[in-house]
Amino acid sequence: MEPRGGRAARLALGLALLCSSLDPAAAAPAGPQPPSAVGQFWHVSDLHLDPTYHITPDRTKVCSSSKGVNASDPGPFGDFLCDSPYQLILSAFAFMKDSEQQVSFMIWTGDSPPHVPVKELSTKLVINIIGNMSSTIRNFFPDLQVFPALGNHDYWPQDQLPVTTSEVYNAVADFWKPWLTDEAISTFRKGGFYTQLFESSVSSQPLRIISLNTNLYYSPNSVTVNITDPANQLAWLDGILETSSQKKEKVYIIGHVPVGYLPFARNTTAIREYYNERLVKIFRKYSGVIAGQFFGHTHRDSIMVLLDEEEQPVNSLFVTPAVTPVKNVWQMESNNPGVRLYQYDLLNYSLLDLWQFYLDLRDANKKNESNWKLEYILTKAYGVEDLKPESLYEMVKQLSVPHSRLFEQYYSNFIVSYDKTIVCEGGCKTCQICAIQYLDYSSYTDCIKQEALWR
Ligand SMILES: [Zn+2]
Ligand SMILES: [Zn+2]
């Protein structure tokens, strides 16, 4: 099936390219470069719809996702102790649509159901919620190519995603048929992952999307304990990347649970360490074809730079913040709802910039108005040229400096401007800085050990 990328959008981008008179054959002369033609795509993640959300005087009854705790300050767009009311999700997609940004596609990295006790959900409910979110997106963007990935909550019981075909994989495959090729759908039914080409009208090179089911590697997934290569996804990934490099394709990796270390927890990987080491090795081997990696799951805004064995930056990875504002009652931090726009070079898919948009939840509830706005533009906020690994590595060096104002900015963005008075110093900063640059066990633990040297 032909990808359904918005034809009008592609036409507009094609015209933009003509106007900038950039000839691919003349793209690499010495001296000042003409401005590159820019493509864009949206990234949304962790919608976590809570269908029970409603305003009621008994604050323990506002949402099931608060798990009996009093909602903090509930309003029409949600509460920091609750998952997303449908109205919040609608406001996010309405904002994206009304912004009239010309985009080539959207990536959607999973987690549609709410954080509620397992017994309050079922396979049927989880399937219904994923179906509801899929049709919500399609109703807002009927002609847009969407590349989705499964999250650890997109299964019942949560986290236990299986290594063979299942009722959920099959039902979700049916929801995602309008976006994916027959081949992608067939791989997805077997293991919850797929690959698909995005054909650009501008570049002679197509872009390959690889949507991984990293939930198979997620620590709480007891189905995959002691399996060296669940669903043979690692061997499959290696094979796809090998072919891609022979064909000189460019690849975006998308997935829900990120590789690397959690920026808010010391010595903790999001996926099991064994799988993390194996993935890092594959990503280093094929860093030349991978032009970007995009994840969700932590609900926070963070970056990672993959270094090779010589400590050279070779890959840029991004974790996009959630649409849901939910936090646990014992947590100090949460995040405002966020959605993200990436800009890339239309000719070679290298990442140029990202625009982070957010909803100030307290303000929106107070005014009964969903005033989504720009939070920051990455290159402007951190004074870097683009989103290439070298540029992000420069940025991390700036962040690492003691009392770095830029790091304060980074941390405020990490929690999507949730609370400007929260600071991250000492051990908190160590974890953040080490997680950004060191994705494997040995380099990460070295970084943690050396914290006294650079702090
Ligand atoms: Zn989530
Ligand atoms: Zn998740």
From TrEMBL:
Swiss-Prot/TrEMBL cofactor(s): Zn(2+)
Calcineurin-like phosphoesterase domain: residues covered: 41-300
Organism, as annotated: Apteryx mantelli (North Island brown kiwi)
Protein name: Acid sphingomyelinase-like phosphodiesterase
Signal sequence extent: 1-27
Main location: secreted
Family: Belongs to the acid sphingomyelinase family.
High-level lineage: Eukaryota, Metazoa, Chordata, Craniata, Vertebrata
Record localization: Secreted
Location of the Sphingomyelin phosphodiesterase C-terminal domain: 312-453
Gene3D superfamilies, per the entry: 3.60.21.10
Keywords: Disulfide bond, Glycoprotein, Hydrolase, Metal-binding, Secreted, Signal, Zinc
Listed InterPro entries: ASM-like_Pdiesterase_prd (IPR017064), ASM_C (IPR045473), ASMase/PPN1_MPP (IPR041805), Calcineurin-like_PHP (IPR004843), Metallo-depent_PP-like (IPR029052)
One Pfam family cited in the UniProt record for this chain: Metallophos
